[in-house]
Specification:
It is a single chain. The protein is built from 14 helices and nine strands. By secondary structure, the protein is α+β, with helices and mostly antiparallel strands. It has two domains: 191 residues; 167 residues, no CATH class. It starts with 5 loop residues before the first helix and ends with a strand.
């Protein structure tokens, strides 16, 4: 259809009058789907975080943020639409507001006529707010996605620089610093223009230097998908008012949701890496919920009645980083990590049946495990125990290392198991010094049969 034809205009006019039905249908299905998907997404995010898959976990964190925003906006939209439908039904029964029948004093009568006004005006305002809120819900999702794609492009630039092994390292550092400064400055200008509602596009001299930045960011944020919607909001006072109102509401809701009452000045702030804290996630029989995943290590239960103790240490990519740092001979092209496909590897078996470390070469697995034994030590009450790790999966299919300790000589009562190993002095900085520290502390009670 020709969008300039009168028939198309009439069709749009008719469609926008009946759009509230589509809005309610979409909102209802979307709210149901978002609520059903939220917990599985949280579980997946937790698994990715524990597996040190930073890029994937950041992407999934973005999805969860979008889910929260969309769920809140659509629920608010359904409530306002319900109020709007109720107002229309009441208008059919009662008509407009008859201030004369209310028989209020002149002061209240003049005030209410000025502030409340016509009932039709109230219905019209509700209709406008509902339509704008529904549209802005999806616009905000595109904005958040655009921020993520912009930073992803920045990340990919650095990964590309890392692949240029033929370029001297000092030149790469200078080039990387230049790109970082350039990106941060460009992001700052985009942010100023966004919150200033196009302030850098209005002046002739600012628009000249800002246009190349705008053009680049419009490509990497895929703004062509939502740009007409965004500019349609900017020329509408009510749309800008709703956006201004939603931002503090989001901040207040975040503070309310994350608030909690601290009922103890000692127990609630207890450091979990001590013999005085028994975290249920460290005991396999108590991690019953789908969201209960061990972080570092686990034992079968708090009370051990056998003369042996099973210890499971969860695998994370940081473990393999430390193993390769300790034994560089394990670093080879055949055992590179990252995304792959069975077509490229020439592997025809299912993913679940593959070997977990080094699909092509298993000859280095013995050396790999020996290095793990050297890096990680297990103690019970400061007494060192020899570990003999094997690759395994726990009941929740979590990949890791498993060993069994002979504890028949332990006395009855409470004991404390600790695992020490390498860690970064600053966990946010991969280039920081590697130190040895206590990774987990698990108290247990030994009462043999």
């Amino acid at each position: 259809m020709d969008y300039t034809s009168p028939e198309f205009k009439k069709w749009l006019d008719k469609l926008q009058q009946e759009s509230w039905q589509l809005e309610l249908i979409i909102s209802g299905f979307a709210i149901y789907g978002l609520l059903m998907a939220y917990e599985p997404l949280q579980i997946k995010l937790f698994k990715l975080s524990l597996a040190d898959q930073e890029l994937q976990s950041n992407a999934l964190q973005l999805v969860l943020i979008c889910c929260n925003i969309l769920t809140f906006n659509l629920i608010l939209h359904v409530l306002l639409r319900g109020l709007w439908i109720g107002a229309i039904g009441l208008r059919y029964v009662s008509g407009d507001i008859d201030f004369e029948k209310l028989n209020y004093s002149e002061k209240f009568d003049s005030y209410l006529k000025r502030k409340v006004g016509s009932f039709d005006r109230y219905i019209s305002k509700l209709e406008n707010y509902c339509s704008i809120l529904f549209a802005i819900s999806f616009l905000l999702i595109f904005y958040i996605t655009g921020i993520f794609t912009a930073f992803s492009a920045f990340y990919l630039c650095f990964r590309l620089l890392d692949s240029l092994t033929f370029v001297p390292e000092n030149i790469l550092e200078i080039l990387g610093g230049f790109i970082e400064i350039l990106f941060l400055l460009a992001s700052l200008f985009v942010m100023i223009d966004f919150f200033g509602q196009g302030i850098l596009k209005k002046k002739r001299w600012t628009s000249k230097f800002f246009f190349p930045i705008y053009w680049v960011f419009s490509k990497i944020t895929f703004s062509f998908l939502y740009r007409p919607l965004a500019y349609n909001f900017l020329d509408n006072k009510l749309g800008k008012r709703v956006v201004t109102l939603l931002i503090p509401i989001y901040i207040i809701l975040t503070l309310v949701i994350t608030s909690y009452y601290k009922n103890s000045g000692y127990l609630s702030n207890l450091n979990k890496a001590t013999p005085y804290y028994a975290d249920t996630k460290n005991y396999e029989n108590e991690a019953l919920k789908d969201t209960d995943f061990i972080n570092i290590a686990s034992i079968p239960s708090k009370v051990i009645d056998k003369n042996y103790l099973k210890v499971f240490m969860a695998y994370g990519e940081h473990i393999e980083d430390f193993v390769i740092e300790k034994n560089e001979s394990l670093k080879s092209d055949d055992n590179k990590r990252g995304y792959t496909t069975s077509f490229l590897d020439g592997v025809s078996v299912a993913v679940a049946e593959k070997e977990v470390i080094g699909e092509k070469k298993q000859s280095n697995l013995d050396l790999y495990l020996k290095t793990v034994h050297q890096l990680y030590s297990i103690k019970i009450d400061s007494l060192l125990y020899a570990s003999d790790f094997v690759v395994s999966r726990n009941a929740k299919k979590r990949l890791g290392f498993e060993t069994y300790l002979n504890i028949k000589n332990l006395s009855d009562g409470k004991h404390v198991l600790t695992i020490t190993g390498p860690a970064k002095e600053n966990k946010w900085n991969e280039d920081s010094e590697t130190i040895t520290k206590t990774l987990v502390t698990i108290p247990f009670w030994y009462y043999p049969d």
